[in-house]
Specification:
heterodimer, A: 228 residues, mainly alpha, 83% helix, B: 224 residues, alpha/beta, three-stranded antiparallel sheet, 28% strand, globular
């Protein structure tokens, strides 16, 4: 199967996942409600005289994105478990690479929409001056989300065979998310503090390296996970 | 029918789960246009053998050679409840590079589902789902068709439709393996019968009528 065919399969799978989500809407609304709830609770729980908005904002943002995204990732392979649809995928000429890329793409759009909807709330609550560096913040969000979704998709495929997949996913996934999330928090802290770009390059390179490594490792391991 | 050019060949296939051997040393050829009916009690290894033949499970030992696309009907529909019948077929058609509307409508029509093509399959009865699963299996124009209890949940009329479709596919040169307990309906479609006992193919013989098949199976099962 050539790269065009792989891309065609990936797009078909992503479109199918998003259509199913659009029909059911369960994962999207639970992720969105969770994101709004966490941002609100963290905002009102803080002591404004002890912790400034700028100190709290990066952590609040990434706690929200990580856990809201995880709620969505769980559904990625639950869909395929239903009626053993995954067997239908495996009987088709679709390669594991095509299936993985399709799943990642669908999850990326799903998590990205949740993030984009909750980002204005974050800006409103924490009054962070990010307009001048919004492009940079979006780049960090995109990179960290891609790494997070790639590993999350792999683990979602692993835990879907277990009886308590909803509980197992965060337990297995969180240790692997530590490096990219720390990098993303560090970068967000510098971006909201309007630090010069020079101070970002180290963390940005580290985040990009994590994303590339995580993405390709997940892709390599996915074939073994998909079999049997 | 020629055995010199099989659509499917199994060479000493074994499969185990943990320490339990579920399929043991099964070898056979299925020619183009030939149907082999697998007969056996529960746990005889029929479903596992079909999953190994399809490629969904790896053989623990031995190998399987398939000529052309494989279509499979299993216990599960392998489709998505939230999508309509047409959307499901279009999705799997896209994976196979066969998503043209005419073909999908023709398959829905053949299986008597055209009028419910735009309804979500989560609302379908067991028989409708089974017919849709058969339509999905036929999407890639398979040269090898694997059917695990294909008549489950079907009424007489739908069963007859499926038997007719199988006959058309045989005439078109597809090789088939069919596992079923519904012998009366399916013996007419089969050329040979493989009797599965304890994971082994105890015998592979020309197909007689349903009574003869049952009698022969009992003899082999009693022998163990």
């Amino acid at each position: 199967m050539g790269s065009y065919e792989t891309l065609r399969v990936a797009l078909a799978i992503a479109a199918k996942d998003l259509l199913v989500e659009q029909r059911t809407k369960t994962a999207f609304f639970s992720s969105l409600v969770f994101a709004i709830l966490v941002l609100t609770i963290l905002y009102f729980a803080r002591d404004a005289t002890a912790v400034s908005d700028l100190d709290l904002a990066p952590g609040a943002l990434w706690v929200t994105f990580t856990f809201a995204g995880m709620l969505g990732l769980n559904r990625a392979f639950l869909l395929e478990r239903e009626n053993r649809a995954v067997d239908g995928l495996r009987l088709s000429p679709a390669t594991p690479t095509g299936i993985f890329l399709g799943k990642v793409l669908g999850n990326l759009v799903f998590v990205g929409v949740v993030e984009l909807v909750s980002l204005p709330l974050f800006i409103l609550f924490y009054d962070v001056p990010i307009w001048r560096q919004l492009g940079l913040l979006l780049l960090v969000i995109f990179l960290a989300t891609t790494g997070f979704v790639a590993v999350g998709t792999l683990f979602s495929a692993i835990v879907v065979r277990t009886r308590f997949s909803e509980v197992m996913l965060p337990v297995l996934l969180l240790p692997f998310l530590f490096p990219p999330i720390v990098a993303a928090v560090q970068l967000t802290r510098r971006i909201v503090a309007l630090r010069p770009f020079d101070e970002l390059t180290g963390w940005l390179s580290m985040l990009a390296a994590f994303v590339v490594i995580f993405f390709f490792l997940s892709l390599l391991l996915f074939e073994a996970i998909l079999e049997e | 029918m020629t055995h010199a050019d099989p659509s499917l060949t199994l060479h000493g296939v074994f499969r185990r789960f943990g320490y339990r051997w579920v399929v043991r040393d099964v070898s056979l050829d299925v020619a183009h246009g030939e149907a082999v009916l697998l007969v056996g009690g529960n746990g005889a290894g029929k479903t596992t053998l079909l999953r190994v033949v399809s490629g969904l499970l790896k053989a623990s030992k031995g190998r399987v050679e398939r000529q052309g696309a494989v279509g499979m009907v299993a216990h599960h529909t392998m489709m998505y409840d939230a999508l309509t019948a047409r959307e499901n077929l279009r999705f799997f058609g896209r994976l196979h590079g066969r998503s043209d509307r005419t073909r999908i409508d023709a398959l829905l029509d053949r299986m008597g589902l055209l009028h419910v093509g735009d309804e979500r399959i989560g609302t379908f009865s067991r028989g409708m789902l089974q017919r849709l699963a058969i339509a999905r299996a036929l999407l890639p124009e398979p040269r090898v068709l694997l059917l695990d209890e294909p008549l489950t949940g079907l009424d007489d009329s739908a069963s007859r439709t499926v038997v007719e479709v199988l006959a058309e596919l045989k005439r078109g040169g597809a090789g088939m393996m069919i596992a079923s307990h519904q012998l009366v309906e399916l013996v007419g479609s089969a050329d040979r019968v493989g009797y599965m006992v304890g994971g082994r193919m105890a015998a592979l013989e020309p197909c007689g009528d349903a009574g003869q098949v049952v009698q022969r199976y009992r003899e082999l099962a009693d022998r163990g």
